[in-house]
Amino acid sequence: MAEEHMTSVMAGTEYDENQIQVLEGLEAVRKRPGMYIGSTSSRGLHHLVYEIVDNSIDEALAGFCKHITVDIEQDNSITVNDDGRGIPIGIHPKMGIPAVEVVFTILHAGGKFGGGGYKVSGGLHGVGASVVNALSEYLEVEICNGEHVYYQKYERGTSCGPLKEIGDTDRTGTKVHFKPDGEIFEDLIFDFDTLLLRLREQAFLNAGVHITLTDKREGVPEDRRVADMVYEGGIREFVSYINRNKEPIHPDVIYVNSVRENSEAEVALQYNDGYSENIISFANNINTTEGGTHEVGFKAALTKVINDYARKYKFLKDGDDNLKGEDVREGLSCVISVKVTEAQFEGQTKTKLGNSEMRSIVDKMVNEKLTEFFEENPAVAKIIVDKALTASRAREAAKRARENTRRKGALESSSLPGKLADCSDRDNTYTEIYIVEGDSAGGSAKQGRDRRFQAILPLWGKMLNVEKARVDKVYGNDKLTPVITALGAGFGEDFNLEKLRYGKIVIMADADVDGAHIRTLLLTFFFRFMRPLIEAGHVYIAQPPLYRISRGKNNHRYAYSDAELKQILAEMGDGRQPVIQRYKGLGEMNPEQLWETTMNPETRIMLRVDLEDARLADETFTILMGDKVEPRRKFIEDYSSTVVNLDI
User: Fold this and answer.
1) pLDDT tens digits, residue range 522-564?
2) Largest Cα–Cα separation, the chain
3) How is 515-566 classified by DSSP, letter by letter?
4) CA torsion 51→56→60→62, rounded to 10°?
């Protein structure tokens, strides 16, 4: 198919102090930081970097920036440098101070309002630079305008002095160096991989823009110190990257695009032999995790195009039902990116696009151009239609299995699994169920629990790896059915969080390879078929101790790591030799010890499984539980000497 080249929605070259419009003053940011960056946790910390980088990306969208560098400095401060036009330094006509100072000290001030500075921008509220400034211990900005270098420093949002000319230069651009404020943030340590994920995403979305991330902190391995990213293929390379750990069923990424006066849309897609759909959408480079009109338009058009093609070429007979949306999206990896002058996002988080015109634009584009592609590439079209037909048959098989299972009552809450030791209370605001590896540990847990609010479900043997199975294989599986029935909320399309019988689902397995495997199998199942459990924060991982250290009859302590064991032994000092018991498994702990260390709400340690980034979680489960061995080996090698973050 003939391929259209993307063209940027360009802004005018006029960009000075007159384009900086003031909407309101900078107030309450330090008092209520969560309103502006979501939280003061690690997530909010990294959001500061995104806000500054997004300003550089806006310069790239306008056609003036080619290279962006992000440096994590030795003291965990951040430097962002770009070769754009540089923030205007002239005196603002209304405020009487330099425009750059307005940008960094006045909330809702920037070139994104009024249409003069930028036609297309990722920033909606114009709070980025000023909020980062307000939440930083200090922030320094250097601006090169092709003639001179200007500098200004701020502390906790307030300028330390006037904008100064500090040198001459023939380059243009903006350099921002800031250190997040320890009075605001719980965590001040930046994670290289977290920043890399977001910056790589931006490099894919902005074809040809060069982004470099450098970690200058001590002790960083050489092969993880610098990431250089530039993707001339744009979102086509993005889809290839998403599918790198999967087996594509057709060789090339399908790409379609459309450009209008005030908007542009592009879609890249490729099918793999898996069973999960992975649609990632963006509007003005903002990841619209909740979808929106552009996703709705794409899904409707994709379903129509594949059904029309299947009818035309008799893959579907006259009496056959149409393929459903879930059928045509099985195994689909897709990136949707739209850019629009007046983006309308729903909610403060900007995660759902609301522009009604984008639905028809994307729908029409996919209808016309994907139909054309199928006609010109019948071999690829047949592969995709066959995949959808197989998914349809599996869906019908799952429907029959579901109805059959319901008739037998196997998934009804009135027919609870025989090995479940239920709790007496029914209020799921504080009831909890421990899913325990093995009958031995299950026996100790049953004896040690508080029967009022703690239920115990022992598991035996390895359960189904749902990463390699369609939904119809889940019905009747003797390892998964007890979990489904005990929780009482169904699974898959029938899952209903309101029917959940327990507020906490705690995975309690041995601290060995088999235990890790069971945890991963369960988490994979929850992620693929009960994702709201994780999204709502109901899933936990128990943390039983590795050692019991005793000195005398009534003096004992527990250690949860080798480092903690050494610390406890050092604290005990000289004297009577302590007795160290190494727990090889949960079954070695008596009921009292299990209660004291792992089940007592007042003394236990548990990890809550969070879903901060669904795409990263999807990728991790594919690596760990998919068919390809090499990505799994590399993952293990990369993280074997470091702490793996379980907050998926």
Assistant:
1) 888 898 889 999 989 999 999 999 899 998 777 889 998 888 9
2) 87
3) HHHHHHHHHHHHHHH-HHHHHTT-EEEE---SEEEESSSS-EEEESSHHHHH
4) 80
User: Nearest Cα to 55, choosing from 203, 176, 195, 185?
Assistant: 176
Phi and psi, residue 243, nearest 5°: -90, 10
Structure token pair of residue 331: 């195994």
DSSP 176-216: EEEEE-TTT-S--PPPHHHHHHHHHHHHHHSTT-EEEEEE-
> What are the Cα distances from residue 457, in Å, to 296, 439, 492, 518, 528?
41, 9, 21, 14, 21
Helix (H) or strand (E) holding 139: strand 136-145
What CA–CA distance (Å, rounded) separates 320 from 311?
A: 9
pLDDT at 7 over 70: no
Which residues are annotated as catalytic?
437, 510, 512, 514
The tokens for 561 are: 């790591």
Smallest CA-to-CA distance from 118 within 37, 47, 34, 14 is with 14
Contact 265, 236 (CB under 8 A): no
Residue with tokens 């999807």, as numbered in its chain:
618
Residue 150 main-chain phi, psi, to 5 deg: -115, 150
Residue 177 has pLDDT above 80, yes or no: yes
Model-wide pTM > 0.70: yes
